[in-house]
Amino acid sequence: MSATDPRIAGWAGQILTAVDDSIAEGILPATVRSFTDMHDHCDANDFLIDAGVPYDGTEATIELTVAVQDAVTAALRAPDRPWCTHGTCRFPGHDHTTTQTDDGTDLDTPAPMRCTDCGQPAHYDTRLGDYRHDNPAAPDCFLIHATKR
Question: Which of 119, 118, 146 shows the shortest CA–CA distance to 131?
Answer without folding.
Answer: 146
